Automatic annotation (TrEMBL):
Domain Cell surface antigen C-terminal intervals: 147-217
Organism: Streptococcus anginosus
Pfam families the record matches: AgI_II_C2, Antigen_C
Protein's gene: pac
NCBIfam families: isopep_sspB_C2
Span of domain Adhesin isopeptide-forming adherence: 15-142
UniProt-listed InterPro entries: Adh_isopep-form_adh_dom, Antigen_C
Name this polypeptide is given: Cell surface antigen
Superkingdom, taxonomy of origin: Bacteria
């Protein structure tokens, strides 16, 4: 959730209304995919904000000269692809949200790309009366999730049979060790599943299985 902080202004500020108002979400496009259909902009009362037009900017060449000039004059510098919300009628926007001291909240959910591992950053910018303001840089980390499969002659402290001879008719156990997911990150975990692609010609599934948790699940 991002916040567009509004302030009460003077007559001098009113003269600068034509310089405009804008909000920019500068996301790292090689790391995340925006869930644009879920984007929301609401005021402090939870109502949808009116008067903002959204642009998804993959290349600044696609923006009008007026919007490029707004970015350049403000002094901000988006690094890659970004979303830009612009007040279409600055005076009306000013009266509805700025003059009233109303906070605006931008909810811009994004999904990690499956191929991305490592650190990525996110930063927002605000243009108010033509002046640019920077947010702090948010740093996120996508860990490499490792899944291991082993085979034992019995559950618990059994012997590892990986690479060893298993006699015809002998019973053995595949042990699937899932990736450890850190707590309190992103959205709630809704599903955790395994797919075991075993050799159906040489192996017969007996229907026995156990699911063991390495830590308490709350």
């Amino acid at each position: 959730m991002d916040e567009f902080v509004q302030t009460r202004t003077t007559n001098l500020a009113k003269k600068r209304l034509p310089k405009g108002f804008a909000y920019i979400e500068d996301y790292q496009d090689d790391a995340v995919t925006p869930l644009e259909s879920r984007f929301q902009v609401k005021d402090a009362q939870g109502k949808a904000v009116n008067g903002l037009k959204m642009y998804h900017v993959l290349d600044r060449k696609t923006l009008s000269k007026a919007l490029n000039d707004m970015i350049d004059r403000s002094g901000i510098s988006p690094k890659s692809a970004f979303y830009m919300w612009v007040a279409e009628k600055p005076e009306e926007f000013y009266k509805a949200y700025v003059q009233t001291g109303m906070d605006l909240y931008f909810h811009t959910p994004m999904k990690n790309k499956k191929s991305f591992i490592g650190k990525y950053t996110n930063q927002t910018f605000q243009v108010q009366f033509g002046n640019g303001y920077y947010s702090n840089v948010v740093v996120n980390h996508v860990p490499e999730l490792k899944v291991q499969k082993q085979v034992y002659n019995k559950l618990g402290d059994g012997q590892n049979l990986d690479g060893k001879l298993v006699k015809l008719g002998d019973k053995f156990y595949y042990f699937l060790d899932g990736a450890k997911l850190p707590a309190n990150r992103g959205e709630a975990l809704k599903e955790y599943r395994f797919f075991d692609d075993f050799d159906q010609k040489g192996d017969e599934f007996t229907g026995e299985y156990k699911a063991l948790a390495g830590v308490d699940i709350k």
